[in-house]
Please model this.
Amino acid sequence: MNELQIFSKNLQNLLKAKGLNNKDLARMLNMTDAAVGKWLLCHNSPTLAMVRKISDIFGISMADLLEDRGDDPHYFINAETRKLVEELESDSELRSLVLAARDASPDDIKLARDIILLRSKQEGGDEQRASEETED
Model:
């Protein structure tokens, strides 16, 4: 896949994830939807300044638009959120949060993680007490 195809795929994924289309993005960039459509169809490539503007609008890095990230589900998440998601994925009890966390803020993800960890500790304590009670 060449650079233009990678950018096009990444931009399409970004728009889909945000529930937007090329007309919406064109409005945000103050340009025609035909110009954005050409990027999506790999007929033309944006300037570096335009890539920077898109990344600024969506709060992502330029690399998120320009690099092939495969099917990485955390593709458009800021660095702090990406780190939290990696932490969540490494813990089987927290992994289910990843799907729900795509558009959540880092603070929301931290809160959800802390609640689940606290609940897990409480359940572990409840199981320990129940086990001790049956031994008596």
The mean pLDDT is 79.
